[in-house]
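ingest -> validate -> predict -> emit
validate: passed (alphabet ok, no gaps, 265 aa)
predict: started
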Amino acid sequence: MAIQCFFDDSGKESQRDHRHVVLAGYIGHDSLWSQFNERWTHLLLRHGMREVHMRRWSGEREKRGWTVAQANDVLGEFVQCIRDCQLIGLGIAVDADAWRALDSDKRKRFGNAQQFCFQRIMRRIMDLVSKSDEREIIDVVFDQDFEFAKQRLGLVDSLFKFDRMLGKQVGSICFANTRYHFALQAADFLAWVTRRQLAEQIEGKASPRGWNMLFADLPYGFLDYRGEHWDQDRINRRLPEALADLEKNLRIEQAQVALEEARGL
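emit:
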């Protein structure tokens, strides 16, 4: 058995018209993902689709001649699959304007907004697993956006050095094609509706339909979505604390390495 996690991005710090950068997706045991994949595969077959991708959803609707209501009904079937499988949602959102305004020292320590989201999502995965005392291998899969993949691979070594438990329990960190990994399509939807929801909140508008479909009342409560929104206020309050944690972990790692060298390990 393994705990599998799938994440996708929405928004880029490098694009000035993107107010928010989001990394979001789902975590669950193998057994839950097996149920999810069976149902998602059936829905794609039923509707004659290769994949569900929100950036291309309007084009898909126009190509098929669907009305907005028909497209929403189809999308609702896929959303119901996510809800019924009781996956745990995790998401990190960063105010890109506030992040761009950081001083050079903080940007050097934490990287760009996408890199920070990656560090935080890995931290949230380990916090969740540690609290439940799970000891299964954790596999983490990201969409194969090669711009982000290269950055994230460069962070893996540092993360494993700073957090040895992370290095021991994470079996793999990889990048995959959303067309063949259906869980990434669900992650794409969550990242997309999260960024849309934040944009609508800022403008004082109602929540987008996709958000409402995903988070409407369920028989057992609300969809389990554990998110962080790093707006200007949170960055001012919490980033110094995160920086202190980085420095503390670095000192611990240096002490461990020194001890092992002294022991001849």
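Residues 86 and 220 are 10 Å apart (CA to CA).
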